[in-house]
Amino acid sequence: MWTIAGTLTPLPVLDRLDLVAAPVAAALRAMADGGRLAVAEIDPALADTAEFCAHYGSPLEASANCVVVAGKRGDTVRYAACVVLATTRADVNGVVRRRLDARKASFAPMDDAVSLSGMEYGGITPVGLPDDWPVLLSPEVAAAPELVIGSGVRGSKLLVPGDVLAKLPGAEVVEGLAR
Asked: Which residues fall in a coiled-coil region (predicted)?
């Protein structure tokens, strides 16, 4: 079923919620499409995208990265998650900054991203993020038949159709997000 799995052993995620972060498990339980996702256990030392793809034989172009961005205007800080293919980069200082109505936008500090998401750094995923965060998706992500993304922990990956990500709370498909 998963053509991008390489040497991974994907399992129905709802059967293995122990392999994902607590906020991810809670979101998956509440999702109508939770049964369309799979999870695969990996070596946490190989969680970073390039090492993961090289080791497990999953195509880089089928991996999506989720980055947490902090946009500031005065004393107000707004957070957003940006999900783009691993072969691209999010336009944080242009598209994302304008979407957040911020004077300055940058990657959120690691401690903030981890504490606010309840997920491990290097495993942050758009599934299970705080409800008030926009989840900005590049059109390529939303249209992908299958993707590998983080699971909220470094010891596993989620396999998910892009259209499921487009249905997440706060999800927006944003033209020009990825460069």
From this structure: none
Q: Where are the domains of the chain?
A: 11-173
Torsion of CA 153, 60, 85, 147, to 10 degrees: -60
Topology at the third CATH level for domain 11-173: YbaK protein (3.90.960)
Rg (CA), the chain: 15
Q: How many CA atoms lie within 13 A of 85 on its CB side?
A: 19
Q: What number of residues does the chain have?
A: 179
Q: For the chain, percent helix, then strand, then coil, each to nearest 5?
A: 30, 25, 40
The residue written with tokens 């996702």 in the block is 37
**Would you give per-residue pLDDT tens digits along the chain (179 residues)?**
899 999 999 999 999 999 999 999 999 999 999 999 999 999 999 999 999 999 999 999 999 999 999 999 999 999 999 999 999 999 999 999 999 999 999 999 999 999 999 999 999 999 999 999 999 999 999 999 999 999 999 999 999 999 999 999 999 999 999 99
